[in-house]
Specification:
Layout (H helix, E strand, L loop, with lengths): L5 H9 L4 H13 L1 H23 L20 H12 L28 H30 L3 H16 L22 H4 L22 H9 L1 H10 L4 H20 L3 H51 L8 H5 L1 E5 L1 H8 L13 E5 L13 E7 L5 E8 L14 E4 L2 E7 L3 H8 L4
Antiparallel strand pairs: 1-2, 2-3, 3-4, 4-6, 5-6
Length: 431
C-alpha cells in the first residue's frame, strides 16, 4: 500500500471512512513510520485548531455599521463618551465569551422613483400612433386620387359612340375604299406576291390589302346623303363613284393574284433541277473517291517496289547451317565421343567435323549428340557421315532409304544433298 495523503488522514480523524478502510489504514500506519509521523502531525494540527476556536470570542452587540439604534432608545455611544469623560481613565474591558447568532444584515437600498419615466413612455406611444395614422391616411388618399383605367376606356368608347350616333348606316369595307390617286404609287404593286421572295415548295400566300381608316370615316359621314338618295330612288354620285372604284380595285386585285397551277409547275421544275444537281454532285464525289483510291494504290505499289529494291538479298547459308551442326570439333574430341577412331570415306577429304543433335539423324538416340563428318563433292553438294556409339538395348533400324548400318559398337548413317544411288556407292568406301 502506498503512503497516505493528507486528505485520507483528515478523513480518518473526522470519522468519514468505513470500518474496513480504517483497519487497512491502521495496519499500514503500524508498519510505515513516515505515515505514523504524518498522522501525529495532523492530530496536533486538529488539536490546535480546536483550541483556537474555543479561545475566539464573538461580539456581544452588533457593530455601528451594520445596525442602527431603534427609535426612542438612548444613544449608547454618546452616553459612553460622557461616562468616559466623567469616570477618568478607562479600565480594560472584560472579554465575554462569544455568542453565536445571525449577523445583522445591511438595510435595503431604496432608489427614488423617476416621475418623468411614465410620461416619456406615453409620449413615445403617442408619436408612433400618429405616424401610423398619417401613413394609412396618405395611402388611402393616393388610391382615391389615382384615375381608373376602366373608367377612361369606357369614357372614350362612349364619346366615340356619341360622336358617330348622329350618322346613318355604315358602308361595307369594299364600298368604303376610296379611288387611288394616279400620282401616288399603287399599294397593290408594292405588295405584289410575285415580287417577293417565295421559299421553295411553299405556295405564295395572297396578301389582301386592308382598307384605310379614312375611307370608313368618309363613308360614315356620307351615309345620310346616300340614305336620302335611296329614298328618292336615285343613288348619289358619290355612291356611284365609290362602287366604280371598288369594282376597279377588285379587277386589279384579281389580275395581280398569281395562278396556283403556274406556281405548282414552278415548284416542280425547281425540285427537278435540285435533284439533277444532287445527282451530279454525287457522281462527282464518287469519281473523286475512285481517283483517290487509284492514286493511293499506285503510291502503295511504288513504295513496295522501292522497299523490295532497297532491301538486301538474304545472305547465303554457311556450311554449318546447312549441316545443322552446333559445334565444330577435331579428331581427338570425335574419338572421345565415340570411344574409338572416327570412320571416314576413302578418297574424300572432310570439310569439317562437328556435333549435331541426335534428332536430326535417322536411327540415332535423340538424347545424345551425333558426330557428323561433312564432305563436299565437286558440285558443291554436302554429304554427311553420322556416327554414334550404341548403348545396350538401342535399336539399329533406320526409317528412311538412306544407308544405315553398324560397325561394332558404332552406328553409322550416310545422308546429304545427293541422291540415294550416290550414297550407296559411297557406303562401300567408308573405312
Amino acid at each position: 500500500m502506498s503512503h497516505l495523503d493528507e486528505g485520507t488522514l483528515h478523513a480518518l480523524l473526522d470519522g468519514e471512512l468505513d470500518l474496513h478502510e480504517v483497519k487497512e489504514i491502521q495496519a499500514h500506519i503500524g508498519s510505515c513510520t513516515a505515515c505514523g509521523t504524518r498522522l501525529r502531525e495532523v492530530k496536533e494540527f486538529h488539536g490546535e485548531s480546536d483550541r483556537l476556536v474555543g479561545v475566539l470570542e464573538m461580539p456581544t452587540r452588533p457593530s455601528r455599521r451594520t445596525a442602527l439604534p431603534p427609535d426612542g432608545e438612548p444613544d449608547l455611544e454618546s452616553g459612553v463618551a460622557v461616562e468616559q469623560e466623567t469616570a477618568g481613565p478607562l479600565r480594560p474591558a472584560r472579554r465575554a465569551p462569544r455568542t453565536s447568532g445571525p449577523a445583522a444584515e445591511p438595510p435595503p437600498l431604496l432608489l427614488p422613483e423617476n416621475p418623468d419615466y411614465g410620461r416619456g413612455g406615453l409620449m413615445r406611444r403617442m408619436r408612433w400612433a400618429a405616424l401610423i395614422l398619417v401613413t394609412v391616411g396618405a395611402g388611402y388618399l393616393a388610391n382615391q386620387m389615382r384615375p381608373s383605367a376602366a373608367y377612361q376606356f369606357d369614357g372614350s368608347t362612349l364619346s366615340d359612340a356619341s360622336a358617330d350616333s348622329g350618322f346613318g348606316p355604315v358602308l361595307s369595307s369594299e364600298e368604303a375604299v376610296p379611288r387611288a390617286d394616279p400620282d401616288l404609287p399603287d399599294p397593290s404593286a408594292a405588295t405584289d406576291p410575285k415580287s417577293t421572295a417565295v421559299p421553295k415548295r411553299v405556295a405564295p400566300r395572297v396578301q389582301t390589302p386592308s382598307p384605310p381608316r379614312g375611307g370608313a370615316v368618309t363613308a360614315r359621314r356620307t351615309a345620310p346623303a346616300e340614305k336620302a338618295a335611296n329614298e328618292e330612288g336615285n343613288p348619289p354620285e358619290g355612291v356611284t363613284a365609290v362602287g366604280e372604284r371598288s369594282e376597279a380595285s377588285t379587277d386589279d386585285f384579281a389580275e395581280d393574284q398569281p395562278d396556283p397551277s403556274q406556281d405548282e409547275a414552278d415548284v416542280r421544275s425547281e425540285a427537278a433541277r435540285a435533284l439533277r444537281e444532287l445527282d451530279r454532285d454525287r457522281q462527282a464525289d464518287r469519281a473523286a473517291a475512285a481517283t483517290a483510291a487509284l492514286d493511293s494504290a499506285r503510291r502503295r505499289d511504288a513504295v513496295m517496289r522501292q522497299t523490295a529494291a532497297a532491301s538486301p538479298a538474304p545472305a547465303p547459308r554457311t556450311p554449318e547451317q546447312r549441316a545443322q551442326t552446333y559445334l565444330r570439333i577435331g579428331l581427338d574430341e570425335a574419338a572421345k565421343q565415340l570411344g574409338r577412331p572416327v570412320h571416314v570415306i576413302e578418297g574424300m577429304s572432310p570439310l569439317f567435323m562437328g556435333l549435331a543433335r541426335g534428332g536430326t539423324s535417322p536411327g540415332a538416340d535423340a538424347a545424345r549428340p551425333v558426330v557428323r563428318v561433312v564432305y563436299q563433292d565437286s558440285q558443291g553438294r554436302l554429304i554427311f557421315l553420322d556416327q554414334q556409339r550404341l548403348r545396350p538395348g538401342q535399336g539399329t533400324a533406320s526409317p528412311g532409304a538412306d544407308p544405315h548400318w553398324t560397325a561394332g559398337e558404332i552406328s553409322l548413317h550416310l545422308s546429304g544433298e545427293v541422291g540415294v544411288e550416290v550414297l550407296r556407292r559411297l557406303r562401300t568406301r567408308v573405312r
